[in-house]
Design a protein that fits this description.
The relative contact order is 0.05. α2 runs parallel beside α10 and α3 runs antiparallel to α10. The chain is globular, with a radius of gyration of 37 Å. It contains 34 helices and 21 strands. The protein is an alpha+beta fold. β6 and β7 form a beta hairpin. The strands form 7 sheets. The chain has a 5-stranded antiparallel β-sheet, sandwiched between helices. A 4-stranded mixed β-sheet has the order 4-3-6-7, covered by helices on one side.
């Protein structure tokens, strides 16, 4: 128990790193936590019963009066840290692991009191986590005492105490609901309805002379009611949009998941006695099992020994790295987040785990689980409609994850598990896809060849909750597992207890007499061992299907508790079912015939053969389809109708996204990261040809054009291309379909399973496109690249990129190389189409332009109008007069200001009536250049360039007297002591000490004129450069171009690099420059449209 731990006589006192202690020193920065209402703890001086914080008492009283929160609640002062108020627990000073005033004393077995949730900081707060890690390591090293079990108890208690002090706790709401009062508009509607009823009553009782006036009043009231109703509807719609946006920004993946899944909610109506009786019936009935099974063959003694050495730090780090940061913590309140961000604490944990491993004793805290019931369907009420979830302590999960990895290596290296049969939990074997592909291939082959085939899908009832512990111990002994691990597993299950918490009660502790806790990492592997032992003892009764080249496929395939029997003879299948039923019955488990299915093919046609488990009949596919490992099996045996089903699923998903109330860029994100994976799985599993997939992509393209604000004539290649001058982060459904099929083909043809590798089925993708031919072409290209060797890429030299040789890589790397090559082939097809496009392919003629690769982070920061303008202007799809004439929307293609042909090039760069706007745009871009150059000059003058005594090849050097002049507000003139001239470059940088002058001339032209503008500016200032050099000055001239649509030329990067920008600073400067040019051109376009409308 936490409160009874042996603790050092005096608590440690360690110096706290800057920003982590509770006292604010001169240079300290205390952790600033913000509550859910946006107020810091130092600002929340008053708290209502609804847990809403206020800065003043008056604000809280106004809130209570409006929302009718009438319950009296005491105020909370930030200086009063010694008393509990509003559910805020005091900070803990004692880190020794003893129970403090803020911790709930243990009321149950083993000190398993549940802790309140820690208010964890953000995962990207690197400095904060690093300081906390250093502080916690010092605290743990000085406070941990005793043996392994004792230290395992103290470690989470001490960490929780420190986290509570430094991070605080999440406030629990008391469940009080505020009463929402009607707003002003609703009150006014109530008054108008009262007047309306009074007028109608008066109309019935009035004389004919008064009715006309009353009708006028009724019409006026009715009109006012309609206006109020429309205004209220708009307010509710705006509020719903704001609520959806806040929910999406808080948890994008959770928001997207709710869009496509059926709502699952409900409240358990069972009483505490009923729940406890159910738990006792399911987990409390210990079955006596006799494992004297005839025909059970024990494998030979292992040649590869189990790793009995100490647990290594890298083993623990691998487990922590793979774990989900958002996994719910156990009863001690410690989350995976702590170990993910604190490597120092992981080292301390590794030492504690090694002490546990050496002693062979499992702490009681690891054997306690607090469970909750999660509804499996909408409006769930009964126990059968809820799924039990158990939350275990993270330290125990890490320990057993390490042991599970070692046990897996032991079983696989000794060949105790046949990967051709059992693929669940086996690393390196994509068992789900391999099993599905081989089973479907066998069924199609039997139908095509008109042969006999029997297929039975078996399902275990309550598989994980019914396996006896004695069977697990027998399986460990059967596979020669060392006694130390056997005893630890036996001790773990003997002491394991669980309880469940609902909204109204918490059950008493229930011992786990049967079943395995699924939250533990080693439990699935132990179940696989039991199932492998059962299956290996049943395979002698049945013969598998004969494949090509006299290869016999395994007659049984298993994935955890899902077993599939495939055989050409019915008698053998019946014998194998009887044998499995006998073994499963001896293990005190049972099959569930109602969830099992059977399929019988006689000369390629389905026949109604029946199979029985005991006395219960197994339904056939003709009676009810079955879903096994993500694939539906039904009659007729074909996938022709699967394309239409996926299309309906896609249509429903697009409609759900359309109605979610978010901006278009967020809808596009949901499509790519939530809906697309749901569509790709059936496209990968089923035999769907390319044509239906192309139709589905047409549906997606239509929605994307609408969400991004581009016309229907916008080319779809521009949405998905990655090598265009402007690339978007969208995913093409056709490309993902082809790559997924290519990955599956490589997975089967180069499977680590020799049986599947020899009998890999051919994937059916229709006549329009063949995955086999595409994979063959990709392999040929990779082999040719291997013959050619390393080549230069873009401006990179030979050896810049690491070469990968296709013939020498592992199967996983070869698979990804083929997938990448398929993507390159798709990209080449898009580029070939772009070259043939006269208007939307003009970007292929742009020279010296730097590519813009937009990421999702960039799109999220851009306004919808900016995204629309960037896409439409880059591909010349804005509604200019010339485009409107081309689209048959108007007959006049002249500019509304100068009567010239109104092309986009004319409006943004050549219109003589917009010269002032072009000058303004030029100056806006020049301001950004001037800002960064001025900052660099100030930095160099302050000695920043040589503070580390590093001689820089680029930048402003070591001079301390750099000066800048920019041709913005005042008319720029060259320094008289350098040269006397009338020419005015846009930017001048010079240093009298180094006798160096840098001239920069900026141009914002049409992107196709970048090279011409560059040469014209260079020739214009040749004489000025010669004059400066004649006077002994080192003169450098930079002609810089920035495209008017937001595309920077290489000359801009050269200039910024010359003045000292590099890395992230250079990228940020480039983004600011192109954004300014793009925004200014958008304003020019808006002004042009406004003038045309007014004219």
């Amino acid at each position: 128990m936490v409160g009874d731990l042996p603790i050092a006589p005096s608590p440690y006192k360690v110096p706290c790193p800057q920003g982590l202690d509770g006292n604010e020193g001169e240079n300290d920065r205390p952790i600033n936590r913000t509550d859910i209402h946006g107020l810091n703890e130092s600002e929340r001086l008053w708290t209502c019963v609804c847990q809403k914080g206020f800065k003043t008492e008056r604000g809280m009283k106004i809130h209570r009066t409006k929302m009718r929160c009438t319950e009296v609640h005491e105020n909370r002062s930030t200086g009063d840290t010694g008393h509990k108020a509003d559910g805020i627990l005091p900070l803990v000073e004692n880190h020794s692991g003893q129970t403090t005033s803020s911790q709930t004393p243990s009321e149950h077995h083993g000190g398993c009191g549940e802790k309140q949730q820690i208010d964890w900081p953000k995962m990207n707060s690197v400095k904060l986590w690093h300081e906390f890690d250093e502080y916690a390591v010092v605290a743990l090293n000085s406070a941990l005492t005793g043996g392994g079990v004792s230290r395992a108890r103290q470690l989470p208690a001490i960490l929780y105490s420190i986290c509570e002090e430094k991070f605080g706790l999440v406030e629990k709401r008391d469940g009080t609901q505020c009463i929402q009062l009607p707003n002003r508009r609703q009150c006014e509607k109530g008054k108008l309805r009262t007047q309306q009823r009074a007028l109608r009553e008066r109309l019935r009782n009035s004389a004919e002379t008064e009715k006309q006036g009353i009708l006028v009043l009724l019409d006026d009231v009715r009109e006012r009611l309609q206006k109020l109703a429309r205004a209220e509807a708009l307010r509710k719609k705006r509020k719903a949009r704001r609520k959806s946006l806040n929910s999406f920004m808080k948890n994008p993946y959770g928001f997207a998941k709710k869009l496509f899944e059926q709502s699952k909610n409900g409240e358990l109506k069972a009483s505490q006695a009923e729940v406890e009786a159910h738990l006792a019936e399911v987990y409390g009935n210990k079955n006596d099992v006799c494992m004297d099974i005839p025909g059970l063959k024990r494998p030979a003694s292992p040649g590869y020994s189990f790793e009995m050495g100490d647990i290594k730090l890298n083993e623990v780090m691998q487990v922590v790295t793979k774990a989900r940061a958002k996994s719910a913590p156990g009863m001690n309140g410690i989350s995976y987040k702590l170990y993910k961000k604190c490597p120092g604490i992981v080292e301390v944990l590794t030492k504690v785990l090694n002490q546990i491993w050496r002693s062979g004793r499992i702490p009681d805290e690891w054997c306690c689980a607090n469970g909750v019931y999660i509804p499996k369907e909408d409006k769930a009420e009964n126990l059968g409609q809820f799924r039990p979830i158990s939350l275990l302590n993270v330290e125990g999960k890490i320990f057993f994850s390490v042991l599970a990895k070692r046990l897996t290596d032991y079983l696989m290296n000794n060949g105790f598990i046949d990967p051709s049969v059992q693929k669940a939990g086996i690393p390196g074997f994509p068992g789900c896809l391999e099993h599905v592909s081989m089973i479907w291939s066998a069924i199609k082959s039997a139908k095509k060849s008109k042969s006999n085939l029997e297929v039975v899908w078996l399902d275990l009832a309550n598989a994980y909750g019914s396996v006896p512990h004695s069977v697990i111990d027998f399986a460990l002994s059967h596979y020669w597992v060392p006694d130390r691990l056997r005893k630890m597993v036996e001790c773990y299950y003997e002491k394991f207890k669980m309880r469940f918490t609902t909204k109204n009660f918490t059950t008493s502790w229930q011992e786990l007499a049967v079943g395995i806790p699924m939250g533990c990492a080693i439990s699935p592997l132990l179940f696989v061992m039991v199932m492998e032992m059962v299956i290996q003892s049943s395979q002698d009764c049945v013969r598998g299907v004969q494949a090509a080249e006299n290869q016999i496929l395994p007659p049984m395939r298993a994935f955890m508790d899902d077993i599939t029997i495939i055989s050409p003879k019915k008698a053998e299948v019946e014998a194998s079912i009887a044998r499995l039923h006998e073994l499963i019955d001896r293990c005190a488990m049972r099959f569930k015939p109602s969830k099992s299915r059977s399929l019988s093919l006689c000369k390629g046609k389905a026949v109604p053969n029946s199979y029985f488990i005991g006395n219960e009949r197994i339904p056939t596919l003709a009676e009810q389809p079955v879903k096994s490992l993500g694939r539906w099996y039904c009659l007729p045996i074909t996938d022709r109708f699967r394309g239409s089903e996926v299309k309906k699923q896609l249509s429903a998903g697009l409609d759900a996204i359309e109605k979610c109330g978010l901006f278009g860029k967020y809808k596009a994100w949901i499509l790519n990261f939530a809906l697309m994976p749901r569509i790709l799985w059936p496209l990968t599993v089923y035999d769907i040809p390319l044509t239906p997939v192309e139709r589905m992509e047409q549906m997606i393209n239509k929605k994307l054009r609408k969400w991004l604000g581009v016309p229907m004539s916008f080319n779809t290649n521009a949405l998905y291309a990655t090598s265009f001058t402007l690339s978007m982060p969208m995913k093409s459904l056709v490309e993902e379909y082809k790559t997924s099929k290519a990955r599956l083909d490589m997975m089967l043809s180069e499977s680590p399973d020799q049986v599947i590798r020899d009998c890999a089925p051919t994937l059916d993708t229709g006549r329009k496109w063949s995955v086999t031919e595409t994979v063959g072409d990709a392999k040929s290209r990779l082999e040719i690249n291997e013959i050619v060797g390393a080549v230069t890429t873009a401006r990179h030299g030979v050896g810049w990129e690491k070469s990968r040789w296709f013939s020498k890589e592992s199967p996983q790397v070869r698979r990804e190389m083929v997938v990448d090559e398929v993507r390159k082939m798709e990209e080449e097809r898009r580029n070939a189409q772009a070259v043939g496009q006269a208007q939307q392919g003009r970007w292929t003629c742009w020279e010296t332009v730097e590519k813009r690769q937009l990421k999702w982070s960039d799109l999220w920061c851009m306004e919808p109008q900016r995204i629309s303008f960037l896409l439409c202007s880059s591909y010349d799809q804005l509604p200019t007069p010339a485009n409107l004439e081309r689209w048959n929307q108007t007959s006049d293609s002249r500019c509304g200001e100068c009567q010239a042909k109104g092309t986009l090039r004319h409006i943004l760069s050549n219109c003589p009536m917009s010269l002032g706007r072009y000058t303004w745009r030029h100056n806006q871009v020049l301001k950004v250049f001037c800002k960064y150059v001025t900052e660099k000059c100030e930095y160099a003058n302050a000695g920043g360039e040589n503070k580390d005594k590093i001689v820089r090849k680029k930048g402003l050097g070591n001079s301390a007297e750099w000066k800048v002049r920019c041709d913005l507000t005042d008319q720029l003139s060259m320094p008289q002591h350098i040269v006397i001239t009338n020419q005015r470059p846009d930017l001048i940088i010079w240093s009298d000490i180094e006798k160096t002058i840098i001239l920069m001339e900026l141009t914002v032209p049409w992107e196709e004129n970048l090279s011409y503008a560059h040469e014209r500016k260079l020739s214009r200032y040749d004489d000025l450069v010669a004059q400066c050099q004649a006077r002994g000055w080192n003169c450098e001239l930079f002609a810089v171009e920035v495209g008017c649509r937001g595309f920077s030329a290489q000359s801009a990067l050269k200039f910024l690099t010359r003045v000292g920008l590099s890395g992230r600073e250079l990228k940020q400067a480039t983004k600011s420059i192109v954004h300014e040019a793009e925004s200014a051109s958008a304003w020019i376009w808006q002004q042009h449209c406004a003038k045309v409308r007014t004219a």
